[in-house]
Amino acid sequence: MTATVIDGKAFAATVRTKVAEHVTRLKEVHGITPGLAVVLLGEDPASQVYVRSKGKMTVEVGMNSFEHKLDAQTSEAELLALIAKLNADPDVHGILVQLPLPGHLDSDLVINSIDPAKDVDGFHVSNVGLLGTGQKSMVPCTPLGCLMMLRDHHGSLSGMNAVVVGRSNIVGKPMAQLLLGDSCTVTIAHSRTKDLPAVVRQADIVVAAVGRPQMIPGDWIKPGATVIDVGINRIDKPEGGTRLVGDADYDSCAAVAGAITPVPGGVGPMTIACLLANTVTACSRANGLKEPEGLTA
Ligand code: GUN
């Protein structure tokens, strides 16, 4: 079998179009422009690229982008004061503090100081608890993007066996909650899982989110299964230079799977699209308006 390639780049463009339509309605009918504030500390090149890209796409869908670039040495008190200001600002509907934070800062404390209603990353403990109890919350962007692609490809996920490889707070755990919410039978596998190949072979849906290049080979995949690859790893090419690969070994998995997301061009573009979706959702909720359809879990 040769897998259907799930085109995350194209799907993300349709999500952004829906977000832009909703933004237009908020502006024209209600006189409200959704706003996203992104806070970046320090000069980490990868974080700078992400933040620039987020800002550009925020503006492209018609929203306001507020970028706060702070020194890596910024104190916790200064950062908390900025977040308090953004929490109180009615023009800011979403707040994202780019992670990882410099080592002298307590990430949990910082994230939990964001107003949960503006926590477009879905990392605040209140949102984690709401998601875990099946209540309306802000949902982390990468798992939300994976869920949207799975629903689009399969329709109903009810009764499917899903194995999430990786137990991070950002992807693995919320992904498992979302799949459970869609009535999958869910296993979270991790580095201590016994006989990982046998566990993965049970899966109708495999979500690979471990951050280890090409660690899942095709012979772990049940024929016809769907592989959602969250990994973005840069590796050296034998002929020199580098290339991006996922956590799944693409060629061998694509030969067995029913569907697979490529790297790049799969999950990655969906993450920013879902950040924009979360911002427009947060703005709608803050103003007591109907939420955009198809853009939330
Ligand atoms: N750093 C890498 N990915 C993310 C993300 O999704 N959110 C935040 N806040 N920081 C990140």
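^ guanine complex. The chain has two domains: 31-117, 141-268. The pocket of guanine is lined by residues 96-99, 121, 141 (CB under 6 Å).
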